[in-house]
Amino acid sequence: MLVDESTLNLWFGLFLFAFGACIGSFLNVVAYRLPLGLSLIRPPSHCPKCSTPVPVYGLVPIFGFAFVRGRCVACETRVSIAYPLVELICALGTVFLFFSIMTPLQFVGTLWPEAQMGTHLGMMRYQPLVLLLTRFFLFYTAIPLTLIDLRHRILPDVITLTGALCAILLGAANVMLGWKGALGGALLGSGLLFFIAKTYELLRGQEGLGLGDVKYMALIGAVVGWQGVLIVLGLASILGSVVGIAIGLGRRTGLQTSVPFGPFLAVAALIVCLWQPFILQIFFDDL
Ligand SMILES: [Zn+2]
């Protein structure tokens, strides 16, 4: 070996951290501009108040915020701490998700099987890569959807519906899920949530869940499969209730406080996705 494995892991981890931070920087742009109907590319990042472009050193992910001291260089308007935080979470999440699936050496092994002893055959060889892509995909869609739902109370179709289609394709490449499992999960997930939303509307006479949540559940369902759908919905409801009650008590507005459901679906989906191989294994053994 040219380098020992721990050195390789360290450098690869640093690369993943930087890569994740750049993705996070882009997702910040998506979350800010998409709901406003602005182009994702033009113009370059600028101050929303005085339109002064952000200097190059201010664009560095995570650290740019500190370089400009959290303010616009021209008019001193404060920059939200949410930007570097999202980039940091995205960077750490990218490193964590990668190492939750494989080591850098195994990664090289799946791409060039000759480099690794004991090669897998056919589709099985690519399964770790499919799992990795699926987790990255779920994480990188969850970030802008969470931010947009918190700020605007919407979940744009561009992400949820296009994402659901991508999720079904990724599911088709996953031998434990297959296209039937992914499609079934999408239909069951969105169908169940649609039913719950309509029932709530009939009983309470007001809208509790939006169609955006239903479409997002199609994406999530395609990732976790029909086996994971109920766990995601249950977990998201528990998380949503706990946080909703806590916020309601904090504001003394009682239990009438409404919180957006998208972020809870996102967190629940990520948790279930991490456990997915174990959940699917239970069903896989029966086949
Ligand atoms: Zn400014």
Distance between the termini: 42 Å
Q: Largest sheet at a glance?
A: none
Rough outline? globular
What's the helix-strand series?
HHHHHHHHH
Strand content: under 5%
Helix and strand composition category: mainly alpha
Count of DSSP strands? 0
Radius of gyration: 21 Å
Tally of structural domains: 2
Heterogens: zinc ion
Q: Percentage of helical residues?
A: over 70%
Total helices: the number is: 9
| Low-pLDDT sequence parts | none
Average pLDDT for all residues = 90
List key phrases describing it.
mainly alpha; 2 domains; globular; binds zinc ion
TL;DR?
The chain is mainly α and 287 residues long. It is 70% helix and 0% strand. The chain is globular.
Folded structure, characterized:
The protein is mainly α and about 290 residues long. The chain folds into two domains: about 1-120, no CATH class; about 125-285, no CATH class. About 70% of the residues lie in helices and about 0% in strands. The protein has helices at about 5-35, 65, 80-100, 105-110, 120-150, 155-175, 180-205, 210-250, 260-285. The longest helix has about 40 residues, at about 210-250. The two termini are about 40 Å apart. The structure holds zinc ion (ZN). Zinc ion (ZN) binds next to loops.
Q: How is this fold's topology laid out?
A:
Layout: H1 5-33, H2 64-67, H3 82-101, H4 104-111, H5 122-152, H6 157-173, H7 178-204, H8 211-251, H9 262-286
The structure holds zinc ion.
